[in-house]
Amino acid sequence: xMSVMQAGGFLxxxxxxxxxxxxxxxxxxxxxxxxxxxxxxxxxxxxxxLVAAPSANNIMRLSEHSPLGSDLCSCFTLSxxxxxxxx
Length: 87
Known about the structure:
Blueprint: H1 2-8, H2 10-32, H3 35-38, H4 41-52, H5 56-61, H6 67-81
Helix pairs in contact: 1-2
C-alpha cells in the first residue's frame, strides 16, 4: 500500500485525506440521522392527534420531539394561515 501511495505522489495523499474525511462524514450522518431520532414514535402519535383534533397547542408541541417535528409544525402553521394550501 505504501508503495502505491509513494508512486501516486502528492495527489494520492490528498485523495486519501479526502476519502477519510468523506468516511467520517458518512459515519457521523449515519449516527445522527437514525430513524428513531428523526421520526420518534411520540411524533407520529402527536401528528395523529393533531389530524384528529387540530389545536394551536398541539401544533407548537410538535417541534419538541425532533427536527422533523419542527418542520411539521411549520407546515401546519403555514397551512392554517392559507386556507387554499400552498401557493
